[in-house]
Amino acid sequence: MAKSSKRASKAAPQFLEDDPSTGYLPGRRWPVVRYGLISLAISAILVFAVELIVRGDVAGTVSFFLQPLKPGWTTIVVFALILIGLDAVLGRSHQSLMIVAPLTLALAFVGHQKSHYLGDPLYPTDFLYARQIFALLPLLVRDRPMTALAMVVAIVAGLSLLVYGWRLWRRKVPALSHKGRLARLTLAVPLLAFFVSIMDYATFSWTRDRLQIIPIMWDQKENYASNGFALAFALNVPMAHVSAPPGYTDKAIAAIDRPQMTASVPDEKPDIIIVMSESFWDPTRLPGVTITPDPIPTVRALRSGSMFSPEFGGMTANIEFEALTGFSNAFLPAGSIPYQQYVRTPTPSMATFLKSEGYRARAIHPGTNWFWNRGAVYADFGFNDFKSEETLPPMEKRGPLASDAAMTDEIIREADASDDPLFFFAVSLQNHGPYEPNRYDNPTHAVQAPISQWARDSLLSYAEGSADADRGLERLIEWAKKRERPTIVAFFGDHLPPLGPVYVETGFLKDNVAPRKEPTPQAALDHHETPLIIWSNRSGPVADLGTVSPAFLPYHILTAAGITHPYYTGFLGEMRERYRVVDRNLLLTPAGEATPDWSRQKEIDPAIRDFQLIQYDMMFGKRHAAPDFFPETVDKVVAHMS
């Protein structure tokens, strides 16, 4: 009997079966497999619950997981790895669920409420603007008092249950061995690190592409719907934090030289009309290409210079941001989109200033108002109103999209109907890519080039759209010439068009898109310059501007209008005397002297540092610069609820 007892109490084989790190339960086999399957099952339930809360729709949530190529299954695996890794840190099997579940479910609930009340998904940057989240609470209490009460009860009950469960789990579940914890970390940490490394949407990832995680950063609602709440939230994490520039203090802001200039407008206030033409560029710059007749004769005759786009082939909102605010994307994280991540409170812009001087600030875009979050951003920029597809009268289409001619008609109609001086910012839509062959019936141009038939037809579609944009500008100029009121018209392309294979076949580029970091300053100019016109019905086109960043457009436009401002014509005017291009990868002086990779150098021009300090102060800091540089914004900062 003694032998039998000794044999019965003998430890199981010393590998996995007797190791509590595997989730071993006496008498059950395959503990490693069982632990992994349980972790996956828990993750699947948790991810499903998160999506259900955010979407508020059972059918939509089920559909998200029934499609095998959707990222929902990737999310489940990632959650399982997180749970396994945290189990190793906490020292108990499956105890990580008590941290991950409450956190993710709470984020999902806040995300659903934000989407319900503000029409926008939850971004990591929202936690930089906690006022926006807290602003939801009074709305919730007023609109759904019983829901608010249920929330309070649920939070109290949930916290109590969590504390009880945590203590019970620590008593009842055996601690993991060092070997088991190390095994979990060895599995989870490298895989999670690899996953994090492929989530930078600004760079292409073959693995991310195979997993069908497609960053849709220009349409965050679709981004969250397609990729799921967790992955879309993760895609936005890299842009969540903007560090203060070295030396940012109130004393540093006070030490910046104040321009000897105040805000002023002429007695006869000129109307200012800005047209940002979608993908407008000179296609005759393509090697070996001849287009007849000239698709852009008006632009060629009136051209003031070139705009240096910070983007290529897309990301229109980033060009808008610079052109309207006089700030620069060069001082923000690479790949960020300020319209999506950072504009959360009233932000100084030309609209803010001109409205304070009695102007009616209006914006128009024939697309939807949620695209690039324009509806909320334009409100924060100070526009009186924004007309989009939802509020514009039916607009005639040219090809699949609203025509430039119809948008020009709307600009003229609204300007003629306005008694107040008008600041008008218009973003066209017609020439948006892709440029499929035979986009337009009865084309009026011909393309000759040693390229494939498909590429020629695609280029012809683009050339026809460019010609329509040019004709829209011509009509606007002819109308403005007949006006008694002084009128300034600015016209520019936001970026080069996404012509893809056309660039490769003509030899303009080696790949379908330009590299983010160009090998030479000249290559950067070749791939980022778009035509710029600034014209006055009193003095004609402004000449010899050269190539300028969109951040300098407020300076040139207001100067042409005879308007002064301490920042837009004062500070930016002095900056323009030093640099004509301020890009994250390139500084270019008026004389053409280039400084590539300036941000990585030990010594940065103090003028650039001042530029960065003012921008950070007004966007993320304490707005010490407002009284001297943006006096019209003082005491007017509140979180938007648009």
From TrEMBL:
Single annotated GO MF: transferase activity
UniProt membrane topology term = Multi-pass membrane protein
**Gene3D superfamilies the record matches:** Alkaline Phosphatase, subunit A
Question: InterPro entries, alphabetically?
Answer: Alkaline_phosphatase_core_sf, OpgB/LTA_synthase_biosynth, Sulfatase_N
User: Can you say where in the cell this protein is located?
Assistant: Cell membrane
Chief localisation class? membrane
Per UniProt, which keywords does this protein have?
Cell membrane, Membrane, Transferase, Transmembrane, Transmembrane helix
The Sulfatase N-terminal domain sits at 270-563
Q: Which SUPFAM superfamilies match?
A: Alkaline phosphatase-like (SSF53649)
Pfam families given in the database record: Sulfatase
Provide the transmembrane region boundaries.
Answer: 32-53, 73-90, 97-113, 146-166, 187-206
Enzyme Commission designation:
2.7.8.-
User: Its domain of life?
Assistant: Bacteria
Q: Name the enzyme group at the top EC level.
A: transferase
Q: Could you identify this protein by its name?
A: LTA synthase family protein
